[in-house]
Records
---
Amino acid sequence: MNQSKAIKPPSKLKYTLIFLVLAVLYVISYIGIKADFSELWTGLPNIGNMLSQLWPPDFAYFKSILKPMFETVKMAVLGTTIGALLSIPFTLLAARNVFLNRWVTGITRLILNFIRTIPDLLLASVFVAIAGLGPVAGIAALIFFSFGIITKMTYESVETIDPGPLESMTAVGANKLQFIGFAVVPQALPAFIAYVLYTFEVCVRASAILGLVGAGGIGMGLKTNLDLFNYTHVTSIILFTLIIVVIIDSVSAAIREKLL
Amino acid sequence: MIQFNQVKKVYPNGTVGLDNINLTIHPGEFVIIVGLSGAGKSTLLRAMNRLHEISEGEILIDGKSITKAKGADLRRIRRDIGMIFQNFNLVKRVSVLRNVLSGRVGYHGTFRTLFGLWPKRDIELAHDALRRVNIPDKAYVRADQLSGGQQQRVSIARALAQEAKIILADEPVASLDPLTTVQVMDDLKRINQELGITTIVNLHFLDLARKYGTRIIGLRAGKVVFDGPVEEATDEVFAEIYGRKIQKDELLGNVEA
């Protein structure tokens, strides 16, 4: 290197350009979709109207939504568990420090990207068409949904594990499965469990929505009541869902904190 | 016996890592490889168990070519070569015993090892190995609970449990303090003498090299510039290997020769 020149700080041009490009993108998007915030403003009085109908919640209704609520949680449990089990081989196949062959990781990632591109509501609609109305369609949708999230997050953390034990397992003459079992699994397990719990939280919230397309759970009750303008019942459902989600979130956050 | 036949290693960016290496290391030798950082010490060591690929030539381990070996044959050759790393390379979240037993995976089937169904002899072997490095009471402790020196002893125990015929140690004491350095080197020396395991160690402390080695190999820019018994490795020889006079930080100090 030429050491006689004074050392200059690196140019900031790159960041300025990135900022400008982003700004242009925002403006183009705003104009492109003909967004008009004044529509929101003129609609404002409707909010008050809506809110007054939503209040007060019908507490007596809590009892009759107990069953669909539990159905929602059960759907999330099943969907997340099966999705998590399916994700294990794909996680390993996608991690570049486990499989050095770029074809293996590349093709696996392509499949994963494809699955993650499909929105959960679309998945649910497809499965309702296949399996009919009810929780089976919802569970099937959640399997794909949780599979996509868990695999993506876990393989990224598998790629950040300490390479030392990987090297020493190669050196002792371990085969691929022993290499995975002795060096990868113990290091990646805490992150995997944490992501499964996080995905379970997301799935509870998602499965509350899936009912809108007829895929079982509390969402079906939500849709019926919305259609019948039973807004006090709607409020009860929202409140109940909130309570369940908060409980699950805090329990799983506590477990995850212990793990990582 | 380890044989290097005209071994050459060129990195993709054109840097020459090893330049026409011809070496024979006999069973039971305690070889110490010295040289500046970047001289190719680590590359040479890692070529022996093929953690690094070479570009030309051939390396034979007990007459078998590790350079040409594939799949199960390669794993079989590696099973006989224990390796000790600067950063210990233990799985920190599991017990010391499981780390030591991981040296045994080459001897048993996948299912058996993955589910921890070790034969009784293997478990005894692992405990024996820990006894040999003076930490028998640590078997059921998690590896990350141990000090650096103790972790390095676990990795020596792993190589012992592996029943390795050769031990490669890549800067085994570079992350240790002077006192534990001497303990770990003593362990390696004792194992070499008692069990006759061929031991090859990369070091950058020259006084340690003199105290423990029976044979010194000096590397400079990927070439062997000195190869001889420890008695011949004078200060002048080291100055030649390093291309300059020996500096204070290349001596650990307080090592009774």
---
Amino acid sequence: MASVTLEHVEKIYDNKVKAVHDFNLQIKDKEFVVFVGPSGCGKSTTLRMIAGLEDISAGTLKIGDRVVNDVEPKDRDIAMVFQNYALYPHITVYENLAFSLRLRKMNNEEIHKRVTQAAEILGITEYLARKPKQLSGGQRQRVAIGRAIVREPAVFLMDEPLSNLDAKLRNQMRAEIILLRKRIDTTFIYVTHDQTEAMTLGDRIVIMKDGFIQQVGTPQEVFDTPRNLFVAGFIGSPQMNFLQAKLTRKGDAYAVEVQGITVPLEARHCAILAKKNIQPMDVTLGVRPEHTSIRFDDSTNAIEAQVMVNEMMGSELHLHVITAAGDQVILRHPTVDLTDEQRANLVYGKKIYFNFPGKVMHLFDPKTEESLLNLD
Amino acid sequence: MSKQNQIPEVDIVVDEKAGVIREVKDERKLRSKSGHERRVNTAIYVILVLMSVIWLAPFVFLVFQSFRSYALESGGMVNYLLPKTWSLDNYRWLLSGESNFIRWYGNTLFIAIFCAAIQTVMVLSVSYALSRLRFKGRKLIMNTVLVLGLFPGFLTMITLYFLLKQLGLTQSGAIPGLILIYCASSGMGYYISKGYFDTIPKSLDESARIDGATRFQVFKKIIMPLAKPIVIYTVLMAFMAPWGDYVFASYVAFGSEPNYNVAVGLYRWVNVNDYQGYFTRFCAGGVLVAVPITILFMCLQKYYVEGVTGGAVKG
């Protein structure tokens, strides 16, 4: 159990490529932090620097109160789960779990106790005598986690641990990691490219792109108030819709004109814009698919669109539509609200209308791509 | 009309059970195809048999000669293949101590085992370092060594001889001298084992290092057990080169008979000594030289093949 502090941490590779820029983060003791971002964003590199598998080019890394920049991985009191499990193929599951303990010259009794305990937690007791080759993907993943648990490390690092599993198993293991976390209650740093994993697992999420931190916050924060266009597009599925729009101002009241309709902003947002003294300008409007409502014939203050693709997800529909202005928009609608006839009618070419209330709108400066609704 | 002719002739039936349309091949065609296959196979086997006869003939000849009675028949070349009297005369003489054979055999075995040990350690550590560590000049070293390795070893023969002579490692000092020559450049043979190490995922090393292992412990406890085939391959190669070497051994030990290795000693019997009196003995010596290598290969064959192919096909 320990906090992890990164101050101005940078990674520059031998070929002068800068993978991580000025990374600042304070991870609290027993916190579950998820690094998320597209591939090549520097999330794994940062994790590997914390693990000691990559040199830190600049900045300071502290685990607890100790600066560990130049400390060997084995002396950092961390454990790591790898994407490809990295089980030792030539020894049994039991020996895989015991490996680190044996290197620490722990006595056999204690080793046995810890290994059986970890195996029990993960439900792999019956596989202890097997070799990793004889296990399925999910079982191997459990062994990999078990190998980290027996260490009772101060910090638990996980590098895309679920990305080699199939979708069903991934969901199951995700739930198990949440339970595991409750059980062993230590500091977790988890790397993934999957925003769903990030949202469901993390106490806090660190969203990265091109080696820069884009936003740090709780899942709710990054979902509700994305700091910039990238975060807005990355978090949430299906992706947020972006439309070109005009911001208008009358005193302290703001409204957005988009595709022929005018939507007033709610007072909370107006206050922020007024405080920043934002003048009428072109903006990028962001609206999440689930925040839109579909109208079948009521065109008042609604945007007209044609259905292109109708994805039936069971409990909800994902409608890909194209507006009269030619923008593609995704609308997400619960199926329970639709009559059979309406559902049957939502086919290619069908004309519908949609709109959204002011409070769900996200506004971004098209030039800086920063959110206009953030106060700071 | 012409278009119709282009349609291949196949029978199509509807398989109602499976609900699909199937192409049914003409049974006559099937039979003729298997006939064709059989002919090709026969041809291949004939060629293979011919090749193995050509390959095996010298060995069979050698073995037959070695069993020809020294007491009752000629010890030299004869114009018949099968010995008239089978006997172990030649072997008895070789192992009796009348000749230097046992000493030469011992010299060779000593050199080969010693080299195998040193070379294996050198090759494996160099390959592991080149496979796992990243340092300045790594690529340059690898390429230079590869190019240097393309030159035949005997180019340096004369220089090496004078160097060894200055160190007193020729003639009576030939055995340590030869060990030095064989082992000196052994790290250069890193190529195949590096290829094998490259196939072992790096995350195993990383995982072990996080688990608390030092670099050497990773090498010893994780990499070595996984690289068993390549270790065996390396040992075999390192053993065989000095075991069968003639070129270096002949000039380093030149003139000092007790320090010859088997190849040099045997050759000098037939070449310098009495050719007629030593030929069958030479053959018996040859058979004895082949024995340990054959046993080694038989036992380690499985790993040997794995080692060579494992390194070649990078996963």
